Amino acid sequence: MEAFKFKTLDDLLDDPSGQAELIDGEIVQRPMARMEHGLAQHRTSVELGPFDHPSGPGGWWIATEVSVHYAMHQCPTHDLAGWRKERLPERPRGVFNVIPDWVCEIVSPGHERKDTFTLFTLLMRHRVPYYWLLWPEDRTLIAWELDGDSYRTLANLTLTDDAPVKQRIPPFTELEIDFSYILSA
Hints:
Layout: H1 9-14, E1 20-23, E2 26-29, H2 35-48, E3 60-67, E4 77-84, E5 102-106, H3 112-125, E6 130-135, E7 140-147, E8 150-158, E9 166-169, E10 172-178, H4 179-182
Parallel strand pairs: 5-6
Antiparallel strand pairs: 1-2, 3-4, 4-5, 6-7, 7-8, 9-10
């Protein structure tokens, strides 16, 4: 019997599918994209666009589907991630090893444990200041902020009807974010 070998970034880069990530030393295939996932990701990017635009509040590099190399055996691909330009004046390139200031994952059926536990603890351990989770099917957002060595809940929002819901949630408090648009059914 062959011993388990933890995979590294080199193994991930050799993966022919291009649709994988490195989680806890294993090459994990990313889930098939669903319409709900794609819309939530796109709409979040649209709502946060002004933070990445010089004519808006600016100050951020925000990207979708970006791989971040946290440690030898950890290189997840985040649905959305952002870096403050004051901390990182030059735009990130390629597989990046600078810890984001904000990460947002859109929870996929069958991958809930990865987003709600594995990435949660990884990001907390690497001191990512803000972590958001979106459940498009449930029309829910939970946002956390690093407080010392652990996350504390900033927002726990579930939309129950079509009423407009706009909120300012850190780290994006300069503008109201339309969560009824992001999580619309």
